[in-house]
From TrEMBL:
Gene Ontology terms: cellular component: ribonuclease P complex
Taxonomic source organism: Marinobacter halophilus
Self-association state and partner proteins as the record states: Consists of a catalytic RNA component (M1 or rnpB) and a protein subunit.
Transmembrane segments: none
Family recorded in the similarity comment: Belongs to the RnpA family.
Gene name for this UniProt entry: rnpA
Protein name as it appears in the record: Ribonuclease P protein component
Major enzyme class: hydrolase
GO molecular function: 3'-tRNA processing endoribonuclease activity; ribonuclease P activity; tRNA binding
Function of the protein: RNaseP catalyzes the removal of the 5'-leader sequence from pre-tRNA to produce the mature 5'-terminus. It can also cleave other RNA substrates such as 4.5S RNA. The protein component plays an auxiliary but essential role in vivo by binding to the 5'-leader sequence and broadening the substrate specificity of the ribozyme.
Length: 132
């Protein structure tokens, strides 16, 4: 049986990791209850960082529930590109049930992949125009 792990190598751990993403945001994926910011990394796999404030999720139990779901949906994603991703919570998250949060997150991960592939295709087109 495959170990169900979420290793440190797949997490943003230091403030400098978060700063790199905030300073060089290349992908923004908005949602009613979440905002995903992402910047490319050179690791070959995605890493995730979480920011959920007390302003949007008052109780620690609410923040922990949402963080657990974000980590789990991230962990099971296949073929996410090499990005450093920050997931920010917005108001209204506390009222959502677990199924709604999970479906929203799965949709967001799909949109991250799609936007990444679109932006890399656009970048390739720009580079090929500039060299001819």
């Amino acid at each position: 049986m495959k170990a169900l792990t979420f290793p440190k190598s797949h997490r943003l751990l230091r403030p400098s990791d978060y700063s790199k993403v905030f300073d060089d945001v290349q992908l923004k994926v908005p949602h009613r209850n979440f905002l995903i910011l992402a910047a490319p990394n050179n690791l070959g796999h995605a890493r995730v960082g979480l920011i959920f404030s007390k302003k949007n999720l008052r109780l620690a139990v609410q923040r922990n529930r949402i963080k657990r779901q974000v980590r789990e949906t991230f962990r099971v994603q296949k073929n996410l590109p090499g990005l450093d991703i920050i997931v920010l919570g917005r108001q209204g998250l506390a009222q959502l049930d677990n199924a709604s949060v999970e479906s929203s997150l799965n949709d967001l991960w799909r949109r991250v992949r799609k936007k990444y592939h679109q932006s890399s295709a656009d970048q390739t087109a720009v580079n090929s125009k500039g060299t001819s």
